[in-house]
């Protein structure tokens, strides 16, 4: 089974690296950016037989399985190119690594005979080195044609910790969940750091409480890990928080929205009585 990768970015390079280290036959990697290919060469230089090229069609011709590991916005361009330049794709498995799209985005290639799928590593990749380090402990989500899933089970099983099959219609919510717990978590930390700067404190003293919270979530889940003024019904503290960020509209909106979520969690847990819940709700809506 010969594997080709289109896209020499963080996902493409790190995935190729891990596949090669786990005895999968990666034969080609393409990118239109020469600098991206040079970067790929630094990681794959010890691997013989891997062709680095700017020709996506060459990758497809050399491969049984083609992994499109480009940015999401480029996938349609790749599909259009292959649809235009390739007469037949029978026997080819073509998948992408986006968590935001199902295999539906590849459907023009279905007419040419390709079997389509998705193989998305549920992970954050700030750079290639960290991606290589975390991929073996990553859950890989797969979706696609029935005939494609067996191949993806095998390949993904050589890349990550566990393989999970997901339905195409669930991809948007799956990706949105990842954005909330990862990308927007970073945004939340940034907002907190903004307030820390007001009093000359950096993020470092807060790292232990962040780690402890993540550990609690891992062990107990988010519902049972929530602490703070909402679950205590501490109305005066909530009011003082809102007054302190009166002139920080964006942070105030974030605080109010997440406090409403926390209030619902407190209701489910039964931590505070209904009267207090109503009072806090009014404060948040009024604040």
Summarize the model shown.
Helix content is 55%, strand content 14%.
Structural features, described:
- This protein is 55% helix and 14% strand.
- The protein has 13 helices and 8 strands.
- Strands 3-2-1-4-5-6-7-8 form an 8-stranded mixed β-sheet, sandwiched between helices.
- Helix 6 links the parallel strand 7 and strand 8.
- The protein is elongated.
- The N and C termini lie far apart (61 Å).
Give the low-pLDDT segments: none
- CATH superfamily name of the largest domain? NAD(P)-binding Rossmann-like Domain
Distance between the termini: 61 Å
CATH architecture of the largest domain: 3-Layer(aba) Sandwich
Helix fraction, binned, reads 55-70%
**Radius of gyration, in angstroms, nearest whole number:** 24 Å
Average pLDDT works out at: 96
Oligomer: single chain
**DSSP strand tally:** 8
From the helix content, strand content and strand pairing, which structural class follows? Answer: alpha/beta
Q: What's the CATH class of the largest domain, please?
A: Alpha Beta
Strand order of the largest sheet: 3-2-1-4-5-6-7-8
H/E series, N to C?
A: EHEHEHEHEEHEHEHHHHHHH
Number of domains: 2
Question: What's the topology here?
Answer:
Blueprint (H helix, E strand, L loop, with lengths): L1 E5 L3 H12 L3 E6 L3 H11 L6 E3 L2 H7 L2 E4 L3 H14 L7 E4 L18 E7 L6 H7 L4 E6 L1 H14 L2 E4 L5 H28 L8 H14 L1 H4 L3 H4 L2 H10 L4 H21 L4 H13 L1
Parallel strand pairs: 1-2, 1-4, 2-3, 4-5, 5-6, 7-8
Antiparallel strand pairs: 6-7
